[in-house]
Amino acid sequence: MNTKITLLLSMVLIVSLSCNNSKKNAHENSKEHEHHWSYSGETSPEHWIEIEKNSNCDGKHQSPINIIHKNVDSVKIQEDLKIQYTPVTLISEVKNNGHSIQFDFEAGDSINYKNETYYLKQIHFHEPSEHKINGVIYPIEMHLVHVSKAGKVTVLGLLGEEGDDSQLFEFFESFLPIEEGAVKDIHQKIDLSSLFLEAKHYYSYGGSLTTPPCTEQVNWIVFKEPIILSVEEVLKLKNNMPINNYRNEQPLNERVVTYHF
């Protein structure tokens, strides 16, 4: 009888320990799953390479950078960049992905860079700016992400300066606020030709995505002349994004920045 009781107690103990270990492992797996990159604390840009093991976030050709004008190579604007935006391109949806406000596009607008066509996929925002010019940080930066059929990436970086209202930003912000994780269908036309990018001077260099996985071999085109939007428009975007959703400045590492004028 005593032997049976001892065996029963042993089985209860084993089951109990097994359940506790399962709960512990599940809790640890849950914590590991939640351990995702962000812009602050232990998952801020300084720690991205630690939590994004298979990323390029510790690469030698990373973005953003501080563009020092006196150190760039200058060339007259040739036919390297052709903007092919039309008034009838449709925004498909807007989302708050927890890192920025992002507008996704249907097929339509494109650019031609160095004789290759890149199609506009999405626009998102960083506050304050990620790129600097002569050490100047702007209130906001807009990234227009383009991808070729071969999967190559070219990003147009537009720095924002506070001033008069912008009809384009009024349109963007008409779909805000939007909660983190939420997606809104839009399917409305947008005319990005109002940005008049063809008239702006720009810097170009080889860099990376500014968010994990920090993929390199990205063509960067950063326009020298900022776009103008109101203080209220800057604040409205800011209130819908994480505070300071920018990556810190990355070393140039012998890369050449070219100024096109």
Protein architecture, described:
The protein has helices spanning 2-34, 48-51, 167-173, 231-238, and strands at 66-67, 73-75, 81-84, 89-96, 101-105, 110-113, 116-126, 132-133, 140-147, 153-162, 183-190, 202-208, 216-223, 227-229, 258-260. The protein is α+β, with helices and mostly antiparallel strands. Strands 2, 3, 4, 5, 6, 7, 9, 10, 11, 12, 13, 14 and 15 form a 13-stranded mixed sheet that branches. The chain has a two-stranded parallel ribbon with strand order 1-8.
Which helices and strands, and how do they pair?
Layout (H helix, E strand, L loop, with lengths): L1 H33 L13 H4 L14 E2 L5 E3 L5 E4 L4 E8 L4 E5 L4 E4 L2 E11 L5 E2 L6 E8 L5 E10 L4 H7 L9 E8 L11 E7 L7 E8 L3 E3 L1 H8 L19 E3 L1
Parallel strand pairs: 1-8, 2-15, 10-13, 10-14
Antiparallel strand pairs: 3-6, 4-5, 4-11, 5-7, 6-7, 7-9, 9-10, 12-13, 12-15
